[in-house]
Design a protein that fits this description.
The protein is an alpha/beta fold. It has a single domain, classed as TIM Barrel (Alpha-Beta Barrel). Helices cover 40% and strands 15% of the residues. Strands 3-4-5-6-7-8-9-10 form an eight-stranded parallel β-barrel, surrounded by six helices. Strands 1-2 form a two-stranded antiparallel sheet. Helix 3 runs parallel beside helix 4. The two termini are 20 Å apart.
């Protein structure tokens, strides 16, 4: 698997796990909605995440929790762009969590490094924005149905096979358009139209998604499936979130998208020390 991820301004080395810190600038995110909605609050949070060890910042202006309403283009641009304008000055990779091509284009014009798209570029115009850009990174995610109705009916059958086939299907047009493999990452979409059993099956069999030169991003942080198996509310899911991130890294994920950066970084330091010692003995 590729050990690098090409983004607009940075060539990310993936020989060690990368932590993507979440900066929600939404009033209704399932986990921390409204806490970082203003520019000053969002930037203070972004700087804290970097101090805690985040390697990448992921800025999002629309909640994609199950049943969440869509946000207008004008509202998303008003939320995201002022924060992004400041975030790109921090000299770290900045990802934009959006599926709207207009937000993608405006963000890339401001210097965003990565497009993180839950729709995997299936919205009209999104593919063209990314494929025409010289070097931005893109994360393609699997989602069953839409954020508005994905909780009403889960996907059926073997999630691992379906997710793998879907990600291959949406990736091939990018490759055909000349987009370098090194620009593309995959996210198997925990919680997006999948049952609890299917989510954990994807984690258990995550390695079946490897081997095609596309690094995996795992987004388990505070997800509902963790609450289902632990009985913990969303604001008490740090420990299971860190456990899931470690399990994902152990099974080959290269990037973990998290709310609890400090705790995840500490846990990964322990994992890395074990991994390094193991390599010395090989």
């Amino acid at each position: 698997m590729s050990q690098q991820w090409q983004t607009s301004r940075f060539l990310l080395q993936l020989d060690k796990p990368q932590v993507m810190g979440i900066v929600n600038v939404t009033p209704d995110s399932f986990s921390d909605g409204g806490r970082h909605a203003g520019v000053s609050q969002a930037m203070a949070h972004a700087e804290l995440l970097l101090q805690q060890g985040a390697h990448i910042l992921d800025i999002g202006g629309e909640s994609t929790r199950p049943g969440s309403p869509a946000v207008s283009l004008e509202d998303e641009l008003a939320r995201v762009l002022p924060v992004l304008r400041e975030a790109v000055k921090l000299n770290v990779p900045v990802s934009i969590d959006t599926y709207k091509p207009e937000v993608m284009a405006a963000s890339l014009d401001l210097g965003a490094d990565i497009i993180n798209d839950i729709w995997a570029l299936r919205q009209p115009g999104a593919f063209e924005v990314v494929s025409r850009h010289a070097s931005c990174g893109v994360c393609l995610m699997h989602m069953h149905k839409t954020p508005q109705d994905m909780h009403l009916e889960h996907m059926q059958g073997d999630a691992v096979v379906q997710v793998r086939d879907f990600l291959l299907q949406v990736t091939q047009p990018l490759l055909d358009a000349g987009v370098a493999r090194s620009r593309i990452a995959w996210d198997y979409g925990i919680g997006f139209g999948k049952s609890v059993v299917q989510n954990f099956a994807l984690l258990a069999h995550q390695r079946e998604l490897l081997g095609l030169d596309f690094p995996l991003l795992a987004g388990w942080s505070r997800k509902g499936s963790l609450g289902q198996v632990t009985g913990l509310p969303v604001d008490q899911r740090m420990v299971p979130s860190v456990a899931a991130a470690l399990l994902a890294i152990e099974r080959g994920a290269k990037i973990v998208r998290v709310h609890d950066v400090k705790d995840t970084v500490a846990a990964l330091a322990v994992w890395q020390a074990m991994h390094d010692a193991q390599a010395l003995q090989a």
